[in-house]
Amino acid sequence: MTATQRITSRALGAARSLSGTSAPARRFMSSSARRQNSSSAQGAQTSASSASNTRNLGLGLLALGLGANAYHLSQQSSAKGNKISLDGPTDLPGSEGYPFAEPRLPFSYGSKQDFEAAIEELKSYFTSQGEDWDDHVTTDEDELERRGLDENGHRSSSEGTKPSVAVYVRDTPNVQAVIRIANKYRMPIVPFSGGTSLEGHYVAPFAGISIDMSRMDKVLAFHPEDGDVVVQAGIGWENVNHYCDKNGGQLFFPLDPGPGATIGGMIGTGCSGTNAVRYGTARGEHFLDMKVVLANGEVISTRGGGRARKSSAGFDIGKIIVGAEGTLGIVTEVTLRLAPRMPADAVAVASFPNVEAASQTVNEVLLSGIPVQCIELLDYKMIQTINKSNLCGRTYDEKDSLFFKLSGGEAAVAEAKEAITRASVKFGAKKESVEFETDKVKAGKIWEGRKAALWAVASTNEAPGVKVWTTDVCVPISALPRLVRESQEDFQKSGLTETAIVGHAGDGNFHALIPFNAEDPEQTKITTDVVGRLCERAQKLQGTCTGEHGVGMGKIEYLEKELPAGTVRVMKAIKLALDPKNLLNPGKLYPTPDFTPVH
To answer: Cα–Cα distance between 495 and 491 in angstroms, integer?
Structure first.
């Protein structure tokens, strides 16, 4: 159908609809016609003349529409050589006047003398605040090494990956002062707090300032009647929940990534955790408001200090900050949305003959609508490792297993028990292998196996030079069995036989914990290649190279394979608009030919 035919058919359809319109609409059109003819000596119109007027009005509208369309089409035809598209331009417009058509991030920083002068000015700033500067500013090699060595991942410290100075801040004005000094001397700034990230987020590839947020760990205001709490960004999520427990215990913050993670880091990486199947991720409505210090030292509030549960006032700047990995601004204060604790909870574990059977059970349980809080998949190798570590004081059946956490009223939990047992047995689990526990202590003992996964792999791989490369991807839930099976085969063929898998099966998130000898270049390359194939495998299954760990330095190349070039350009354009000097956490997140991170 041509553009002319489409427009004409719409106009004809509109006219026809007038003759078949509803009685109220006919009455409206009829009364309109009567008003237009109110000066007539005939008075009230008959129903026949009313209908005639309605048809005449419809034909008039049709004529106007056709005339306007004909004029529009003639203008378009003469301008574009008869090539007309109502679905948008077929060619991209020229880049004239658009400053970010090819955005390039600058990597030009101050000299060694500039950095030394900046450090002296940092000391002077804290002295001027009545503080001992050495309580805030340090160039101690051990402190700097801690920020150059990715203890949780696979990057080693070397010249150029450590910061020049670490600065401990306590409040928003401190952060502003540090950023202003960094601007003056063109010094990169890398945020650091819990130090639990897994993709090199806090490594300093261009030296500069490591701004340590760990002392910004205060609860500023608690509003239990509204279900929110205002905190500094350096507080840990576990400490938030401990505070809630001490002050009534009816509320909690539901995001639960790894132990030690802080609110600011969680915002930066867009994390989630085991509760995501019920409560969602950091990209949801968990952060009602954020106070953010921008790259020029200006402080903004993403919601103006508002604590309403929702808002449609402008676009959501907070959503841009979440997942930006500290590259757009440094979050200093956050209003967290809390959730009510359920009156009863329970834990279950079931073992299966293979990953496919476990995954089919996941789909069955999710579609049943029962109140599942967590569904975790641990493959047979992970279960073997947990048993070998002796960290749990018990053993588990060494098969591919599902761990469930449930919450709700007693009736809902009882219904969930029945549904989980029924689904597990349906897909191959032996009924006696399904453990279900509502007693808080006993339930905690079952769940200990899931909590111990990372530590179990670490404790059973302590040979000299061995590190554990922890990575994640995410796929549609239905694709998870294939992802796990093919990845297990790849790990075995590559000689990485101690690799264990744990996944948030309820949302398709897959984690691999890969022990490897970081001092052996050949094995390091093999491991790097295996992780690359894992990312690409997930992307081919319509998934993502990272479900919750973020991009950092480790997955920049895979982000470029995942997102369209135009999307990456928009990301860079936003970055340049807010941080034109590229001072905030440079070398992370954005694919660029000007910097290639090394493993």
So the answer is: 6
